[in-house]
């Protein structure tokens, strides 16, 4: 009698067009609380026998064959993304990779915008500044506060001026009172070597107005 050989063929549902385009890319970047790899593998570019699979809602599926993980991704119309390639076996997660990248870009832009809101400007004065120069410096401080920035005001002492710190203290207090409608003292005057430093911060309404204006412009 001749030998009989049975062959099993697995038929896989094709990827959607969008996911086919994504899994063909070779330099996608995935973050999961931070950068994971500059060459993150997704879908059929993951070439290992088995993976530790995490579901779309963070549930632990367990260790499964790569074929089964790809099948589950296709059935859910999601991507299989390698999030921890150094693990044994590698950890992969089911997710909408396109949506993930979009949300990551949005968070990065928001982070940059928040960093811009906390910019600290600096203004330097001498303890015996004349009236005209004082008004000029005060104008700069007012403009910075109106723009939603914090302002570091530095009084620079030279020579014998160092023996009269009260001059700098009174000048800083005067400046704070003159711009009280725009900002408040966040850090009280303190001596720092030959200098005396005070930090002014804009009122919250000013900072919010600047943030709203920035969003409107974009």
UniProtKB/TrEMBL annotation:
Using the record's annotation, list all stretches that form the Translation initiation factor 3 N-terminal domain. 42-110
The record's principal subcellular location, in a coarse class, is cytoplasm
A Pfam family it matches: IF3_N
From the Swiss-Prot or TrEMBL record, state where the protein is found.
Cytoplasm
Recorded hits in InterPro entries, A to Z, give: T_IF-3_C_sf, T_IF-3_N_sf, Translation_initiation_fac3_CS, Translation_initiation_fac_3, Translation_initiation_fac_3_C, Translation_initiation_fac_3_N
Q: Which GO molecular-function terms appear in the entry?
A: ribosome binding; translation initiation factor activity
Q: Which domain of life is it from?
A: Bacteria
One GO term describing the cellular component = membrane
Domain annotation Translation initiation factor 3 C-terminal: ranges:
119-203
A Gene Ontology biological process noted in the UniProt record is:
ribosome disassembly
Q: Which UniProt keywords apply?
A: Cytoplasm, Initiation factor, Protein biosynthesis
Subunit structure of this chain's protein: Monomer.
Function according to Swiss-Prot or TrEMBL: IF-3 binds to the 30S ribosomal subunit and shifts the equilibrium between 70S ribosomes and their 50S and 30S subunits in favor of the free subunits, thus enhancing the availability of 30S subunits on which protein synthesis initiation begins.
Family matches, as NCBIfam families: infC
- Describe the family membership recorded for this protein in Swiss-Prot or TrEMBL: Belongs to the IF-3 family.
> Under which name does UniProt file this protein?
Translation initiation factor IF-3
- Which organism is this protein's natural source? Tamaricihabitans halophyticus
Gene transcribed to yield this protein: infC
């Amino acid at each position: 009698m001749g030998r009989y050989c049975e062959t099993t063929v697995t038929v896989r549902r094709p990827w959607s067009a969008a996911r086919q385009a994504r899994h063909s890319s070779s330099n996608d970047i995935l973050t999961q609380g931070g950068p994971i790899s500059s060459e993150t593998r997704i879908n059929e570019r993951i070439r290992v026998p088995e993976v530790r699979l995490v579901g779309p809602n963070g549930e632990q599926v367990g260790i499964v064959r790569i074929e089964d993980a790809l099948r589950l991704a296709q059935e859910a119309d999601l991507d299989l993304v390698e999030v921890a390639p150094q693990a044994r076996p590698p950890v992969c997660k089911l997710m909408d990779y396109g949506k993930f990248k979009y949300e990551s870009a949005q968070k990065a832009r928001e982070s940059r915008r928040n960093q811009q809101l906390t910019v600290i400007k600096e203004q330097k004065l001498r303890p015996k500044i004349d009236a005209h120069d004082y008004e000029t410096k005060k104008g700069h401080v007012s403009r910075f506060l109106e723009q939603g920035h914090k302002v570091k005001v530095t009084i620079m002492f030279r020579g014998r001026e160092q023996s009269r710190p009260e001059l700098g203290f009174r000048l800083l207090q005067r400046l704070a009172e003159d711009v009280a409608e725009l900002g408040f003292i966040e850090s009280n005057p303190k001596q720092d070597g030959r200098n005396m430093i005070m930090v002014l911060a804009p009122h919250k309404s000013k900072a919010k107005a600047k943030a709203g204006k920035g969003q409107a412009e974009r």
